[in-house]
Design goal:
About 40% of the residues lie in helices and about 20% in strands. With about 220 residues, the protein is α/β, with parallel strands linked by helices. The strands form three sheets. Strands 2-1-3-4-5 form a five-stranded parallel sheet, with helices on both faces. Helix 4 links the parallel strand 4 and strand 5. The longest helix is centred in the C-terminal third of the chain and has 17 residues. It is elongated.
């Protein structure tokens, strides 16, 4: 799940981004409102964490432009401007939640996960492919009830595939969902994680759950008899 964090305080941005990546989320960052607005014009995100006091373009203006374009992406306002008027204005413009600085990381992570679950239309979803399952609340993969040990990148690739049962996912789409724009990687890096995932899935399922390559189309997660 890819998140855009819009925060001009570099140390805080780094701290929050690292915590969310540790929670197996892909995070891109923007340090000002203009850059955030440009990204939101061309990229898809599962959530935006938005500061209000931003250089070049105020956070409320970024939010206003998002909603004017018809974007339904959840927005969590994260700001030191915790006054009632700012909160009401942000919510009226279409923000989904509001967290004032200073804050605890545990609360931020809980609010982020709640917004992501809500955007999926359910408070608790178990995605399934054969005996492979993904608990969207725990954000954990299991095979036949046993937790899988995956790296963050492997986890992100498998989350995209299991979220689209029976659908081939193009390599480029996987890359966009797994890597942030500022990552030093190219689209062929996906093949490395597909290879590693295949080995791990084969080890636990003996071939009963596999990632299939559809040449020229993409990758498909399927359960086999």
């Amino acid at each position: 799940m890819r998140i855009l964090l819009v925060e001009d305080h570099q140390e805080l941005s780094h701290w929050v981004a690292r915590a969310l990546r540790d929670a197996r989320l892909t995070v891109e960052t923007a340090g000002n409102g203009a850059d955030a607005d440009a990204l939101l014009l061309t990229q898809e995100y599962g959530l935006v964490i938005l500061d209000l006091s931003l250089p070049k373009m105020d956070g409320l203006e970024v939010l206003k432009r998002m909603r004017a374009r018809g974007s339904k992406c959840p927005v969590l306002i994260l700001t030191a401007r915790g006054g009632l008027q700012d909160k009401v204005q942000g919510l009226n413009l279409g923000a989904d939640d509001y967290l004032a600085k200073p804050f605890e990381l545990a609360e931020l992570e809980a609010r982020v996960k709640a917004l992501l679950r809500r955007s999926q239309g359910n408070e608790s979803i178990i995605l399934q492919c054969g005996q492979l399952s993904f608990d969207t609340v725990l954000r954990q993969f299991f095979y036949d009830g046993s937790a899988l040990s995956l790296t963050p990148r492997e986890y992100a690739v498998l989350e995209v595939l299991i979220s689209r049962p029976g659908q081939a996912v193009p390599k480029e789409k996987l890359f966009d969902q797994v890597f942030a724009l500022d990552d030093d990687a190219n689209v062929d890096a996906i093949e490395i994680y597909i290879h590693r995932l295949r080995k791990k899935l084969d080890a636990v399922s003996q071939g009963k759950v596999a990632i299939v390559t559809l040449r020229g189309i993409g990758y498909l997660l399927e359960a086999r008899a």
